[in-house]
Amino acid sequence: MKSDFRQKIFSYRSYTPIPFLIVMILFAKPTLLSLVIGFVIALLGELIRIWGVGYAGGETRTTGPVGGSKLVTNGPYAYVRNPLYIGNMLMYLGFGIMSMALFPYFQIFGLVYFFLQYYLIVTLEEEYLSRTFKDEYKLYFEHVRRFVPKLRRYKFASNFKFDIKEALRSERRTLQAFSGVTAVNVLIFFLKK
Fold first, then answer.
1. For the chain, how far is it from start to end, CA to CA, in angstroms?
2. Which pLDDT tens digit goes with each residue over 61-95?
3. 98, 107, 144, 159: most buried by Cβ count inside 10 Å?
4. What are the CA-CA distances from residue 179 to residues 93, 139, 170 (Å)?
């Protein structure tokens, strides 16, 4: 049952931000300072995502069963095992700060909400990676943390190359959402002046 629930969360992870975004829009009270600070934090999250997707490729977009054909351990993955989820959490935090909706409770709730979601997904992914890549993953697991980056690069990192074209192609939907949420916050700011 636990696996089924985690798989459902994984499959629908593109839709779980919708309630967060609705509350953000309904209670938004952006200021110029909140727009700037929030945008910088959200942009940092998106840049981390682009960096990660540039190594991992389009497989990160799957909504089917958890899986992957390669174990990527270089790029941002040489410092932390889940850079895409860290990038997502920074983006949602940034959007929450941009909006100033129910500040600071909404932003704290958002961090907890997305952390729990990603924790469940990550435990499912780890089981898959452990079964599929066995000793290679075990070594990686022992040396690279799940969510807290290490400053020291993983010494057995894979040699996959960064592909900016693949990263931007794969991130197209996320970049559209990023632009849309940013535009909505800016629009609300001007309408409430």
1. 50
2. 776 667 778 999 999 999 999 999 999 999 999 99
3. 98
4. 15, 39, 16
